[in-house]
Design goal:
The complex is a heterodimer of chains A (about 110) and B (about 110). Chain A has strands at about 5, 10-15, 20-25, 30-35, 45-50, 55, 65-70, 75-80, 85-95, 105, 110. Chain A is mainly beta. The chains are: A mainly beta (about 110), B mainly beta (about 110).
């Protein structure tokens, strides 16, 4: 248990669906991250939020829309996804975005059909 | 561009044998370096980190890693592997100039009884 909780753990969605991934941390951290982990590829940083402000968007397609209502919660809204978006989506948090020790959630395994 | 390379995709060792997982980085300056472990279906757990000082760092679960500037390497070692060490291991590097944590592609470790 790292203190970072992701829900749901598994999600299957059609290409026309809209769904959201949720991440929650109660570690008092101010930075939160979304990573995508695909088979046989390095972890890809998608978004960084620092003190609720988005500080990095790593050229992510607009069908992924993040939301950070407060420092403890991070969402990833999904719509009109493609099968190649199937992956493990990992949330992480750290004290600040310049603090390099990140704590990861268990991930949401997303399958787009 | 900055990068982290893990040359070995898969490694198999016998239980009780020693282990070394390789990691090389390519950065203009010495980055902060990390090893994470991911068990099946789980998120990433930090094993150890190197920021500065002693080049041999100790981590959890009996792991250690040695930073070698001349070789741009940060190899992970364990003297005697246990079956529970079977997992995927990720090397990561953070450079303040890029303000980004970059991961290698991972090494999957299998342990034979």
């Amino acid at each position: 248990e790292t203190g970072v909780t992701q829900t749901p753990r598994h999600l299957v969605m059609g290409m026309t669906n809209k769904k959201s991934l949720k991440c929650e941390q109660h570690l008092g951290h101010n930075a939160m991250y979304w990573y995508k982990q695909s088979a046989k590829k390095p972890l890809e940083l998608m978004f960084v939020y620092n003190f609720k402000e988005q500080t990095e968007n790593n050229s992510v397609p607009s069908r992924f829309s993040p939301e950070c209502p407060n420092s403890s919660h991070l969402f990833l809204h999904l719509h009109t996804l493609q099968p190649e978006d199937s992956a493990l989506y990992l949330c992480a948090s750290s004290q600040e975005s310049s603090d390099t020790e990140a704590f990861f959630g268990q991930g949401t395994r997303l399958t787009v059909v | 561009a900055q990068s982290v390379t893990q040359p070995d995709i898969h490694i198999t060792v016998s239980e009780g044998a020693s282990l070394e997982l390789r990691c090389n980085y390519s950065y203009g300056a010495t980055p902060y370096l990390f090893w994470y472990v991911q068990s099946p279906g789980q998120g990433l757990q930090l094993l150890l980190k190197y920021f500065s000082g002693d080049t041999l760092v100790q981590g959890i679960k009996g792991f250690e890693a040695e930073f070698k500037r001349s070789q741009s390497s940060f190899n992970l070692r364990k003297p005697s592997v246990h079956w529970s060490d079977a997992a995927e291991y990720f090397c990561a590097a953070f450079s303040g100039g890029y303000n980004k944590l970059i991961f290698g592609a991972g090494t999957r470790l299998a342990v034979h009884p």
